[in-house]
Structure formats: structure tokens, C-alpha cells
Amino acid sequence: MSAGEQIPPWLQEQVGRMQQLQQNLQSIMMQKQHLESEHLETERALELLKKANDEDVVYKTAGSILVKSTKTNLITELEEKKELANTRLTVLSKQETRIKENLKEAETKIREMLRGPASQSGPAKTDTPK
């Protein structure tokens, strides 16, 4: 395309769709990274808590304050948090995979659309020779 030509609407639509998919992918990857970090932090806290004696005083955070709790309650809460994080990571991974597949399809479609008119004007198909 020369500089004077405008991008056809169908191509603008496909490029816009592809950009939206890229933004969605970036958002999912950021969420996934944050969740993985949170998951590791929860695992470390669980390890330390399990090493503590049952008589040790333990606290949990509630906003910007610490609240006294029991080792058993904290272990239960952290294991639930870890399980929830695992579930969310699984969902995000599936979304990431689906968006990557959609991106590949969009790229292929754009390439085909750009090549389309040239390849369609080629020689007509002929049936078997007589």
C-alpha cells in the first residue's frame, strides 16, 4: 500500500481486534504474575507456620493491623487461600492459552486478507483433462 492509500475498513477492524486481544493477553499475564507471587508468599507463610510450636502466639494481618489467632485457624485460612489461588491460576492459564490461539487466528486472517485479492485473481481451476 502506498502512503496515499487508506487502510480498508475490514483491515482496520481486524487490526483493532488483534490489538484488543494483545491488551487482554497482557492484562491476564499481569494478573497471573501477581497471583503467582501471592501464591509463593502463601506457601512460605504456611511452611513457617507449620514449623511453629502449637503454643507459639501467632498473628494474622487484617488490613494494616495484626490480630491474634491460632496456628490451626491460620493454617486452614492459608490452605484455603492457596487452593483459591491455584484455581484462579488454572483459569487464567486457560484464558491465556485461548487468547494466544485467537491472536494466531487473527494474524493468519489478516495475512490471508492482505494476500487474498492477488491470489484469487490467479488462473481459474480446471477440471480433469479430457
TrEMBL record:
Signal peptide: none
GO MF terms held by the record: protein folding chaperone; unfolded protein binding
Swiss-Prot/TrEMBL keywords: Chaperone, Coiled coil, Cytoplasm
Family per record: Belongs to the prefoldin subunit beta family.
CDD domains referenced in this protein's UniProt entry, alphabetically: Prefoldin_beta_GimC
Name the UniProt record assigns to this protein: Prefoldin subunit beta
Coiled-coil spans in chain: 11-109
Cellular location(s): Cytoplasm
Species of origin: Nitrosotalea sinensis
